[in-house]
């Protein structure tokens, strides 16, 4: 078992802020397993790489013998977390929350050992709250304190509405800490205010306040905005290995250090050495490491081999998606190139397909033939391979 100092060094590595570091040292020195809380609201179907940054830290605590307390925000999701947002976030209906939450644990289990964690839906206690309980909770803070938040103060300056129910969210998240008697709470940097509210509520309840440990925010595949489902710049844990790898290969080069640091166990020295080489090789290694974590070593080797064959050896990957061309679409043994692109789901519209043909991005067959123009027809046979940029599909003739 590592010493308290060794644990402190490991657990604080990569952290953005610790409130307070001396309290964490003291808790670790006490020698008892700490109760380490992390909450996630089921706001969509997908858990993505951005969520794994604090989840990976939670796993580190687990590996050192501490207790992971995972809060599934079945009550807070109905309010909507305002943290880091410049507009109101719509809450979800009970039906949406239940549907989204169904797959969350399965995905989180790819990072955290769920069998050894406490999993607590916060509706378990909030559904028992009466009016008097809610009044007491609301009376634990002031409007002035709430407006200290950067997101709220910015919205006041810009004239953007702040709805009263949004002010309830940090109090609910803080009360979760009281219910589970958290020693430590993890979150992203935008969550610090909410985590600090938990400290206040624990003090008022006669508990020792939790340590707040925040992790940096992971930027998404665009290299600019926070990774998120609403922005569409995310990589989901449940995505196929090929999709995870392909999305990673498309991130800007300047994003690699951040992703290596927050998404892998590589040391700073190892990261420096990798990034000193060719960017494309560094990106392939990163993509393979992400796939290895969530799909296993065999899947990582397969996507790497397919990538090399398709883009370095100019061949097609072994595993190719298939699509069906109905017989009614075939005339004299051929199909419009535009229609093929849409049927293969390479493009969502005929107009987009025509533009891709004009750009020379579409080809078909073993000789990678390109249509002369957007009006061209493509001779089709069962098994014909068609390509658009990095997308590849095999045609199957329907009846």
UniProtKB/TrEMBL annotation:
State the superkingdom. Bacteria
**GO CC, one annotated term:** cytosol
A Pfam family this protein belongs to? tRNA-synt_1b
Q: Does the keyword Nucleotide-binding apply?
A: yes
EC number(s) on file: 6.1.1.1
Q: What reaction does this catalyse? A: tRNA(Tyr) + L-tyrosine + ATP = L-tyrosyl-tRNA(Tyr) + AMP + diphosphate + H(+)
Q: Name one GO molecular function term.
A: RNA binding
Q: Which GO terms describe its biological process?
A: tyrosyl-tRNA aminoacylation
What SUPFAM superfamilies does the record point to? Alpha-L RNA-binding motif (SSF55174), Nucleotidylyl transferase (SSF52374)
Q: Which UniProt keywords apply?
A: Aminoacyl-tRNA synthetase, ATP-binding, Ligase, Nucleotide-binding, Protein biosynthesis
The record ties this protein, via InterPro entries, to: aa-tRNA-synth_Ic, Rossmann-like_a/b/a_fold, S4_RNA-bd_sf, Tyr-tRNA-ligase, Tyr-tRNA-ligase_bac-type
Which PANTHER family does its entry note? TYROSINE--TRNA LIGASE, TYROSYL-TRNA SYNTHETASE
Family, per the entry?
Belongs to the class-I aminoacyl-tRNA synthetase family.
**What's the protein here called?**
Tyrosine--tRNA ligase
Q: Which organism is it from?
A: Urbifossiella limnaea
């Amino acid at each position: 078992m590592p010493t308290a100092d060794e644990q402190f060094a490991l657990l604080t590595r990569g952290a953005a802020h610790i409130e307070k570091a001396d309290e964490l040292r003291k808790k670790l020195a006490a020698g008892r397993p700490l109760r380490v809380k992390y909450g996630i609201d089921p706001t969509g179907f997908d858990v993505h790489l951005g969520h794994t940054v604090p989840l990976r830290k939670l796993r580190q605590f687990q590996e050192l013998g501490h207790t992971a307390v995972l809060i599934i925000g079945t009550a807070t999701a109905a309010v909507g977390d305002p943290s880091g947002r410049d507009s109101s976030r719509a809450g979800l209906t009970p039906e949406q929350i239940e549907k989204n939450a169904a797959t969350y644990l399965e995905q989180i289990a790819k990072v955290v050992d769920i069998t050894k964690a406490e999993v607590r839906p916060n509706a378990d206690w909030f559904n028992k709250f009466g009016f008097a309980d809610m009044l007491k909770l609301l009376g634990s803070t002031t409007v002035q304190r709430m407006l200290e938040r950067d997101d709220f103060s910015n919205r006041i300056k810009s004239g953007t509405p702040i709805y009263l129910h949004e002010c309830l969210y940090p109090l609910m998240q803080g009360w979760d800490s009281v219910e589970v008697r958290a020693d430590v709470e993890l979150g992203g940097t935008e969550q610090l205010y909410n985590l600090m509210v938990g400290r206040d509520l624990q003090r008022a309840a006669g508990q020792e306040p939790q340590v707040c440990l925040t992790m940096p925010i992971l930027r998404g595949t665009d290299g600019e905005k926070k990774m998120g489902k609403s922005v569409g710049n995310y990589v989901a844990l449940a995505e196929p290995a090929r999709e995870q790898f392909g999305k990673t290969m498309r991130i800007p080069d300047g994003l690699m250090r951040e992703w290596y640091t927050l998404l892998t166990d590589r040391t700073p020295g190892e990261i420096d050495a990798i990034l000193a080489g060719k960017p494309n090789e560094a990106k392939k290694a990163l993509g393979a490491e992400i796939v290895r974590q969530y799909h296993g070593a065999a899947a990582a080797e397969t996507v790497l081999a397919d990538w090399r064959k398709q883009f370095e050896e100019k061949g097609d990957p072994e595993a190719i998606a298939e699509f069906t061309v109905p017989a009614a679409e075939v005339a004299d043994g051929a199909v419009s190139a535009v229609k093929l692109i849409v049927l293969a789901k390479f493009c969502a519209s005929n107009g987009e397909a025509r533009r891709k043909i004009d750009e020379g991005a579409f080809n078909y067959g073993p000789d990678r033939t390109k249509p002369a123009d957007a009006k061209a027809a493509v001779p089709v046979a069962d098994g014909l391979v068609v390509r658009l940029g990095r997308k590849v599909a095999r045609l199957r003739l329907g009846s």
